[in-house]
Automatic annotation (TrEMBL), chain A:
Alphabetical list of NCBIfam families matching this protein: PhnG_redo
The encoding gene: phnG
Name under which the protein is recorded: Phosphonate C-P lyase system protein PhnG
Domain of life: Bacteria
Keywords (A to Z) from UniProt: Lyase
TrEMBL record, chain B:
Domain of life: Bacteria
Record-linked InterPro entries: PhnI (IPR008773)
Region feature (Disordered): 139-161
GO molecular function, one term: lyase activity
Pfam families given in the database record: PhnI (PF05861)
Keyword entries, A-Z: Lyase
Record protein name field: Carbon-phosphorus lyase complex subunit PhnI
Keyword Lyase in record: yes
GO biological process: organic phosphonate metabolic process
Length: 148, 397
């Protein structure tokens, strides 16, 4: 699968946009089309939950900063964004891309914005995993007395 | 008793101006940027995020800079800021089984599927001061060594479903394809406790999505549920939780803990968005998770089995996560039918009411604020008692 033919569902692209570095997203998608803000970008917090024992009862681990935004394009398409951090332009840009992805511009946008984000995320993750793998312990058993 | 007093504004302004100058230090030395603190003092940043209960590395770094490196003061700044934020909602519970690992070790199984991954650890360092870091211009960073070749097997990593039990030979790691930059996103690595669980040797956790209590919103109520205790511990003062955990090891509520698994890595945070009707990833956070496996010979209500303690903390915060899991286990004596032996770590009220370092600092330090009238009345009381005592002694003679 090459990234140029990749298709994205909404959940996937919203996740990519939320995790993207704001500067990188701005680089890939610099010009914002005209839009009407339904919910101006707002900074807030989301309580992150964990589970006791990794599997049991949910508990509150602590909050994280999140910026959200909702807007409508001239075409009528509505975009939403919840992105980590406190960057309002990031949330606005993510909401615009979310809206455009529901229009006939989806394919172009997927190639221009989403595919590079996905590729870069994949490279970043596998580089980190490889770095972790280099610290993997290879145990070997020394010759024991009874073997001799 | 409090009485409004005026005056001192000029002194306070001058003190704050001096504080700002002291914070900056010698202006002949370059100022620290927030980004430098975030990148190079990352473990301090992690601690402030964990104890301030707010995951935002930039803000934590700013707080450290503003607090002149006083981490509890930085936690205070973060807590104060956090209370100004509107709460958008709660995430789904993070799935630590899907963690992208940077570290994963087990003290209970040498050869476990997924392997032991040391990650960027202080373990096995010699704790000798590295004077090279002091010299102007650091030595270039060493490139990571290539992974050592697999000892046996090789080839494709098996699917997780085909992983054998622990008592069979260990396959090559399913963590990543061997070699550099190979493969895509690594497959998830199973939790160690899952293996013990399969054999019924360890107490199992019952999943529940009941809305957990939130002590940042409602006052703490005792007796506390385990979710409330875990929240108090994960944001508790690291030193306090460490000391309590250490006390259990020394015999004050001994729980015979082994680190079944310690893992550090990043997990996705997913939240249901009502406008959309489905859940989306809103970001990614680094966490440390510790699961202890504790010897347990059985009690009036429970059969002999291993029991569990759990630690989960924001950031790379290994000491805290291990401490949390030991204290969590000690606090579970009631549900496991153990005896209360009066150990501090078993005493829920003692632990939970003293773990918050901002609360503790506030109450501790308030005694340095003006108590002139209080003290005046104490002074008068002592003078009167002394006078009475002297009169009585003279009368007796």
């Amino acid at each position: 699968m090459t990234s140029h033919t990749a298709t994205f569902d909404r959940k996937t692209w919203m996740g990519l946009l939320a995790r993207a570095k704001p500067e990188r997203l701005a680089q890939l998608f610099p010009e914002l089309p005209a839009h009407e803000l339904l919910r101006p970008p707002e900074i807030g917090a989301v309580m992150v939950q964990g589970r006791a024992g990794g599997a049991g009862s949910a508990f509150n681990l602590g909050e994280m900063t999140v910026t959200r935004c909702a807007l409508r394009l001239i075409s009528g398409a509505v975009g939403h964004a919840h992105v980590q951090g406190r960057d309002k332009p990031h949330a606005t840009r993510a909401a615009v891309v979310d809206a455009l992805m529901q229009t006939d511009q989806a394919a172009a946008l997927a190639a221009q914005v989403l595919a590079p984000l996905q590729d870069e995320e994949r490279v970043r993750r596998s580089a980190r995993a490889a770095r972790a793998a280099a610290t993997k312990v290879e145990f070997f058993t020394l010759v024991r007395g009874e073997d001799q | 008793m409090y009485v409004a007093v005026k005056g001192g504004e000029r002194a306070i302004d001058a003190a704050h101006a001096w504080l700002a100058a002291e914070r900056r230090g010698d202006t002949g030395i370059a100022a620290l940027s927030v980004a430098q603190i975030r990148e190079q003092l990352a473990l301090a940043v992690n601690r402030v995020m964990a104890e301030g209960s707010l995951y935002d590395p930039d803000l934590a770094a700013l707080a450290i800079k503003q607090a002149r490196g006083d981490l509890i003061e930085a936690v205070f700044l973060i807590c104060a800021y956090r209370t100004t934020l509107p709460r958008f909602g709660s995430s789904r519970p993070i799935n630590t089984g899907d963690m992208a690992l940077t570290r994963r070790i087990s003290a209970t199984f040498k050869d476990l599927p997924g392997g032991q991954i040391l990650g960027p650890t202080f373990d096995y360092t010699h704790r000798l001061l590295d004077f090279a870091l002091m010299a102007e211009g650091e030595a270039p960073l060493a490139a990571p060594p290539p992974p050592s070749p697999p000892h046996r097997g090789g080839g494709e990593a098996p699917l997780p479903a085909t992983l054998p039990h622990l008592d069979t030979p260990v396959p090559p790691s399913p963590l990543v394809g061997e070699g550099w930059g190979g493969g895509g996103t690594p497959a998830p690595v199973p939790h160690v406790t899952d293996f013990l669980n399969r054999d019924g040797l360890i107490q199992s956790e019952v999943p529940s999505d009941a809305t957990p209590p939130d002590l940042t919103r409602e006052p703490m109520e005792l007796p506390a549920s385990r979710p409330l205790r875990l929240q108090a511990l994960t944001r508790g003062d690291e030193g306090f939780v460490l000391s309590l955990a250490y006390s259990t090891q020394r015999g004050y509520g001994r729980t015979h803990a082994f680190v079944g698994e310690l893992r550090i890595g990043t997990v996705a945070v997913e939240m249901d968005i009502p406008e959309l009707g489905f859940a989306v990833d809103i970001g990614e956070i680094e966490v440390t998770e510790c699961e202890t496996v504790n010897q347990f010979t059985g009690s009036r209500t429970e059969p002999p089995q291993f029991t569990r303690g759990y630690g989960l903390v924001f950031g790379q915060t290994e000491r805290k996560a291990i401490s949390m899991s030991l204290v969590d286990r000690a606090l579970r004596w009631k549900e496991l039918g153990e005896d209360f032996i009066g150990a501090p770590a078993q005493d829920e009220e003692f632990v939970l009411m003293h773990a918050d370092n901002v609360q503790a600092t506030g109450f501790l330090e308030h005694i340095k604020l003006p108590h002139y009238v209080d003290f005046q009345s104490e002074l008068e009381l002592i003078r009167r008692l002394r006078a009475e005592a002297i009169t009585q002694r003279e009368a007796a003679e």
